[in-house]
Amino acid sequence: QQQVKQSPQSLIVQKGGISIINCAYENTAFDYFPWYQQFPGKGPALLIAIRPDVSEKKEGRFTISFNKSAKQFSLHIMDSQPGDSATYFCAAERWGAQKLVFGQGTRLTINP
Amino acid sequence: GAVVSQHPSWVICKSGTSVKIECRSLDFQATTMFWYRQFPKQSLMLMATSNEGSKATYEQGVEKDKFLINHASLTLSTLTVTSAHPEDSSFYICSAREDYTGELFFGEGSRLTVL
After folding, report:
1. In this predicted model, what pLDDT tens digit does every residue of A63-77 receive, in sequence order?
2. Angle at the Cα of A67 from the Cα atoms of A104 and B41, rounded to 5 degrees
3. How confident is the model over A46-55, as pLDDT tens digits?
4. How far, rounded to the nearest angstrom, does the alpha carbon of residue B106 sit from its chain's CA centroid?
């Protein structure tokens, strides 16, 4: 119930293409869904986050799509660039519950 | 944006020694901080939740006597790996939850290598 399942494990996209990473959760009490970007040897950095009262949130080239009934959310990276090559983690928590649950991570490679 | 500073960023020590890692929230107060461990190509594994002024809450399977956590102020939490062994070698990451907004910010991580 506490798991967040993330797919794919790895993804290769051509420069300029769209990168899509998916996550699914079970716990309907989750109400905060962030995405983190992590470069090798660095800590995760918050990329974008969404709450279940909206179905989509866009910040620049990054968009989260949220499907509450399916208990799924996804990250779309438009016009993917080589600098976007990193590991991406989705996460979920019940706001204030003090514990963020992470997905397994997706290693994204953008080919020039 | 809010900054969480972790120090040292990397450390090499001999087996049997103890190593302390600091996690500081530089421009905000954080009653709650978290310590994670990350193995290569894997996700972050929560080790413990650190609360200012009280004992840390450890996740199942994490030895509290091995990984000592102290959260003495609203801006500082420390993780001490006691009697370190090669299997303790890992990437340790802290995060701090801003008291006012509830947002979570991560440190840059600390690479521990035990010889």
Report:
1. 999 999 999 999 999
2. 10
3. 999 999 899 9
4. 10
Cis amide leading into B8 (omega within 30): yes
Q: What is the CA radius of gyration of chain A?
A: 13
Hey, are the CB atoms on A95 and B102 less than 8 Å from each other? yes
Q: Does the beta carbon of A103 lie under 8 angstroms from any beta carbon of chain B?
A: yes
Query: Which residue spans within B3-89 are E strands per DSSP?
Result: 4-7, 10-13, 19-25, 32-38, 44-51, 57-58, 67-73, 76-81
Mean pLDDT across chain A, nearest whole number? Answer: 94
Residue A1's pLDDT band (cuts 50, 70, 90): low
How many other C-beta atoms are found inside a 10 Å radius of the C-beta of residue B82?
15
B88: left (phi over 0), alpha (psi -120 to 50) or beta: alpha
Residue of chain A nearest B44, judged by CA positions: A102
Contact B43 A103 (CB under 8 A): yes
Q: How far is B2 from chain A (nearest CA, A)?
A: 11
